[in-house]
Design goal:
Number of strands: 22
Order of helices and strands: HEEHEEEEEEEEHEEEEEEEEEEEE
CATH architecture of the largest domain: Sandwich
Number of helices: 3
Strand order of the largest sheet: 2-14-13-5-10
Largest sheet: 5 strands, mixed
CATH class of the largest domain: Mainly Beta
């Protein structure tokens, strides 16, 4: 009788050796990196963290049943990433690295469902593994440059069978909960979209027959709230820095220049020769993000030069924006 009781005791206890242990741990921050304001507005930006605050080890994936749960409830005092001027960048949190399983703030999400815990291998083996989280920004955020952050509160709550006996009998359940915080950040950099049509003086037989090009515009849509200046380089063939610009055909030159607005002040690339965003003819001031600021200019060929040989004369001028 003693031998029979001993065998029964071993049969009940040995299969239950596979046990699991989960705990709430300190998270690893999620960073989107540095992204231009235009990219933030037009394209969903991805990010992730390999550690969303829940760590588990042990057990077998195949033992998860319908009454086993790993809930996460995400809350925050903010509605998204908050920047230095009060702008907010919205984003969505996902349970895997696709957009298939979004989390809703304030609503418990069960990672034991949809095969997510299984795919993570969270309970497989003896080495602790953490739950990753994934993020994607919302398209359409017109925001100023700066650092954007949010601190999320994540309440983890789990209830699952942590040991299996003969015939699949559950020998005990791991039931616990805890709260951790996760910091998410993104840095927005200044940027612009630029529309700058080419200048065409047309054709003429002599220098004096060329007419000035007027009514030309350069359109810039720069980061919301950004103060900037716009410079035009001296081209590829200028006599000297800040000197007359020149087009070239073979070894021959044709001097010309570009002037601010409708006046005679040369538009250059250094110091006062540049134009400030406050100097725009349309929407002067800091950048608008989604709206254009328009700078007028005119160009002319200098008439105090000798008419060069016939040919097609070209030059390339670099436009730069400084913040």
């Amino acid at each position: 009788m003693t031998w029979v009781r001993l065998c029964l005791w071993l049969a009940l206890t040995l299969p239950g050796a596979a046990q699991a242990l989960c705990s709430v741990v300190t998270t690893t921050p999620a960073g989107f990196g540095t992204i231009s304001s235009i990219a933030v507005r037009t394209t969903s930006q991805p990010s992730s963290t390999l550690n969303g605050g829940l760590s588990c080890t042990g057990s077998l994936l195949s033992l998860l049943a319908n009454n086993d749960h790993f809930w996460a409830t995400v809350t925050s005092t903010q509605s998204g990433l908050l920047g230095p001027t009060g702008d907010v960048i919205g984003y969505t949190i996902y349970a895997n690295n696709s957009t298939s399983y979004p989390l809703t703030r304030g609503t418990a999400y069960d990672f034991a469902r949809n095969g997510i815990i299984d795919a993570l291998g969270l309970l497989n083996g003896t080495v602790p593994k953490t739950v990753p989280l994934y993020f994607g920004t919302t398209i359409g955020s017109n925001v100023a440059a700066g650092v954007y952050t949010e601190t999320l509160s994540i309440f983890w709550n789990w209830n699952y069978c942590s040991g299996i006996g003969v015939g699949g009998l559950c020998l005990g359940r791991d039931i616990n909960s805890g709260t951790t915080t996760l910091t998410v950040n993104l840095t927005v950099s200044n940027d612009c979209t630029i529309t700058a049509p080419n200048i065409a003086f047309g054709s003429a037989p002599v220098i004096s027959a060329f007419t000035p090009v007027t009514g030309q515009t350069i359109n810039l849509a720069c980061t919301k709230g950004s103060a900037y200046t716009v410079g035009l380089g001296d081209g590829q063939n200028a006599i000297s820095v800040g000197g007359r610009r020149r087009m070239i055909s073979g070894s021959n030159y044709l001097a010309y220049d570009i002037f601010k607005s409708a006046g005679t002040t040369r538009w250059g690339s250094v110091g006062a020769a540049r134009r400030a965003s406050t100097d725009a003819e349309v929407n002067p001031g800091n950048g608008l993000g989604t709206g254009s600021q328009i700078f007028n200019y005119n160009a002319k060929i200098y008439t105090d030069q000798t008419t060069p040989p016939a040919g097609t004369y070209l030059d390339n001028v670099v436009l730069d924006v400084g913040f």
